[in-house]
Amino acid sequence: MRRLTYIQMPPNQSQALKLLLSVNSKSYSIITERKKFYEDVSISHGEGGMFEINLDQRKLKTPGGKLFTAPNEALAIAVANEWDTQKDVLKFYSMHMTTLCNTALDNPTFRSKDQMITAALKYLETDTICYRVEEPPSLVELQNNEWDPVLNWIEDRYNVVIGSSTNILGPEIPQATMNTFRQHLGSYNFWSLTGLEYVITQLKSVVLAFALIDKHITVEQAVLLSRLEEEFQIGHWGNVEWAHDVDLYELRARTAAGALFVHFSSESSTVKRKLMQD
Amino acid sequence: MAALSSPLRLCRGILREIRAIKGPEYKQSLAYNYVLDQFRKNQITGERYCRAQEEALHASHSYLCLLTSTRQHLALYDIYHGKGQRDTEEMAGIVGLRLPTQPGGKGWEK
Fold it and tell me: Which residues in chain B show pLDDT less than 50?
């Protein structure tokens, strides 16, 4: 139990909280579980076309204390479903959509779009897909067979040069390529960018993240390609459930959440009615 | 382009996951009605190749993956994840010992 010392007695509740937060700088939610304190989950319309989540009669708030709002119904329902899924104990580490929304709403590390884009593109220099081994031959072949098609796809799609390398420093990414990607990432809004950066961080690959977000590959395929060498070693040495499977399912869950988050944050679904002709 | 399952398979898969979570009253849940609604809405199209339909299909595939893998991860987590450190008193109690008490408090405690 941590001891908290007050320098002076704060006059009211909210001041006390602020003092607590300033003393305790790692305040952004280290709690992983807590007891369930509600029965029903529902969504409702809020201001400006946003959606709010209701737990019984109370409105859901972000860890930073803001009112939780989702920009569209699909995202709201995905989050509401996460809260609805919880049984007697709330397991925050399994609520990926909620976590992503909280990060986008609170922006606890105060990052700008540019900073996020720079951080995301940093992964390109050591992109999983581009980092090849020289031996054993079967792994080399596997990497070529599985990764080359995706690399070709992205080079085609974005008209860039990336290439792969067996060099310890990784491939040399031309500035033109970086510029193209930087421009493309700049076209995403802040929420989508949050999701996209998350997917890149999870998969440890910009190429795979793009392939997934552009709906060229599925989540399972992206995760498999990201873990290609691990899967190779598992095939050789055997599977360890408490390590490999746990990692696999967690990576899948997080990547799926990220991909869905980007999809919901950047889509604009309109229903176009065709004229009936007879 | 990746071979995605048919819409019917995906829809059934998602609804099955929802049922696994919610139990018997799963038909009243938010997600159930929304998912069914979305699948119905996206069905109607005269186009042979509909981009929006493919995107919706990919999104539902991702959602099914999210539900399934979260459930699987939690199942393994419950089995394998460490329970965390116990209190010193509890730990002593496990081997049948008790922590000593000093009425005057220990030297360094105020």
Answer: 1-3
